[in-house]
Design goal:
Layout (H helix, E strand, L loop, with lengths): L11 E3 L19 H14 L4 H4 L9 H14 L10 H23 L8 E5 L2 E4 L2 E4 L5 E3 L4 E5 L1 H9 L5 H20 L1 H10 L4 H30 L3 H13 L2 H9 L12 H14 L14
Parallel strand pairs: 1-2, 2-6
Antiparallel strand pairs: 3-4, 5-6
């Protein structure tokens, strides 16, 4: 994958090496419970990471959006946890992948009479703060809709390679573009629809189905990005296979089977390995986000 051919971005915020806010947000935290807590615990087990600070004690209520956004603005204004943009290859890679998503989704939105708002991507090491609560390496990459930022500890890529067999530039790009896919969902109002549907769901298992739809659609959107950039990056079948390997490794069924020896489908929040591969390839083969209807009649 020749990622250096891609356009760069002006929206990467490098907080590595500066502490990133250290102790996090007093009284805040990431809202984690039910199926999400199970998946985080499983990922922690698979990566050999202690996730007790995230999942321990049940669900943690997030701090109010107003307060967390205010703290995030203060951190940005004071430069807390930030360093000058780095010239290392990790930074350059993330910068190029993010820049290419801006181009791809900007063109798609424009073709549909809409305006795409670029997200920011925060690079950090260890811990940092977000408008959704404290971020640390145990959580893995995530998108926060409250500040419209993707958070990424680049050590996650080393963990992918060492413990999930998910190495390779295109596999890493898949992770980033999946999170940007959540930003697209946020802009289109899909995330809000899912949240409302989950609140009125009859059970946790029913609510989890909406979460699965959301995650699989983000996989499909990542595939759309891959389709639109394959000529620029000179993708090979081997590159595509690395993304397929990663999607396979992080399916709910694969993670649960690896940790406990059996699976509990009602607890799935991201989809099975086969579902994740199928939807990524749907986006990759078509290049059409309109083909990414992972909800069926769920949101009707």
């Amino acid at each position: 994958m020749d990622w250096k051919n891609l356009p760069g971005s002006n929206n990467v915020e490098d907080r590595r090496g500066g502490g990133g806010g250290g102790g996090g947000i007093p009284g805040g935290g990431v809202a984690v419970g039910g199926g999400a807590a199970i998946i985080i615990a499983l990922i922690g087990w698979f990566f050999g990471i202690d996730t007790s600070s995230i999942t321990g004690g049940g669900q943690t209520q997030p701090q109010s959006q107003t307060q967390t956004q205010s703290q995030a603005r203060q951190q940005s204004q004071t430069g807390q946890g930030q360093t000058a943009p780095a010239s290392d290859e990790s930074y350059q890679f993330v910068d190029k992948i993010l820049g290419s998503t801006e181009q791809v989704w900007g063109d798609i939105f424009k073709a549909n009479g809409r305006t795409y708002k670029d997200p920011s991507l925060v690079l950090y090491s260890g811990t940092t703060t977000s408008a959704c609560g404290q971020a640390d390496s145990a959580v893995g990459p995530f998108y926060c809709p409250s500040d419209q930022k993707v958070y990424l500890d680049t050590d996650f890529f080393a963990q992918m390679k060492q413990q999930l067999g998910g190495g390779g530039d295109f596999a890493q790009a898949y992770v980033i573009t999946h999170e940007v896919g959540h930003h697209v969902q946020n802009l289109l109002g899909i995330s809000d629809k899912v949240e409302r549907a989950q609140r009125s769901a009859s059970s946790e298992a029913a609510a989890n189905k909406y979460s699965v739809g959301l995650e699989l659609q983000a996989d499909c959107f990542a595939g759309v990005w891959g389709n639109k950039t394959q000529s620029q990056t000179n993708l090979t079948q081997q590159d595509v296979q690395t993304a397929i390997n990663t999607a396979t490794a992080i399916g709910d069924d694969a993670l649960q089977k690896a940790s406990r020896g059996y699976v509990v489908p009602d607890s799935f929040t991201h989809g099975t390995s086969q579902q994740r591969v199928n939807w990524f390839m749907t986006g990759f083969k078509s290049g059409d986000p309109g083909k990414c209807d992972t909800f069926g009649n769920l949101l009707n």
